[in-house]
Here is the input.
Amino acid sequence: MSANAREFTLTSDGGLVARLTNYGGIILSIIAPDRDGRLADVVLGHDTAQAYQDNRFYLGAIIGRYANRIAGARFSVDGTVCDLTANDGPNCLHGGLVGFDQVLWNAEPFGGEGVEGVRLSHRSPDGDQGFPGNLDIQVTYTLAAGNELAVDFHAETDRATPVNLTQHTYWNLAGTGEVLGHRLLVNADAMTPVDATGIPTGEIARVAGTAFDFRDEVPVTGEYDHNFVLRRDGPGLVTAARLSDPGSGRSLEVLTTEPGLQLYTGNALDVPHAGLCLETQHFPDSPNQPGFPSTILRPGSAYRSRTVFRLGLI
Here is the structure.
């Protein structure tokens, strides 16, 4: 972590305390009460800031330019082929070798009227990891009443380029142990199957009768690293997922404007299943998948996305 990295602490009236840094936009910790008022850190993080210099699991970080995978680390836009840095076998994962998780963001704290927050900004230059165009990004963290942590993304470009941003926090509502046994609801009737390298086949598959059916809250019992197609009737925030821990009584609701949600159960962590990710996103490999919602941002348009993490009790 850069010596110029800064840390910020946000506190809500409901007892939630979130610590974050402008290095990678990383959420360092979120302290939340259980049903008996006992406090615990409900996200995975390192004990020291320096440990994030090798954040190979993307703990708590902002992900971009493109969250998830792009097949063969290559895509074309307007007839131009763009070669990206490959960092996941033949594929580009989470923006390449040096993604937004390793950026020292400009940071501006703000507060007032019951809210506290930090506004982060960064310019990703033309050619960054192979992506075209200068991309100006702003990420705003806002902690408000009701124990809601909102993450707002905004981006503009001077050349057509794919953009897919997300927040990569690993949640463990018990504060310790593994997350298998947490109960999960995902507001999705379908998911996008993948090949052996994690690249979508292009199919939109129904979840009914499969291990991907989380439409009713059920215990997490298997290993997942899959994108779900969220159910929505129009634009705006929808509930993407609800997670709960029966032991502590803590709960998490994830709301988003995005069309997809990646469920990752921490299969490759040093301690497998110590946390799980609920990454709001557009679909993996969308630049190479004409049947998926487009992720191409063009000059004169703005990328906007909002995700809200609402912590509570069951």
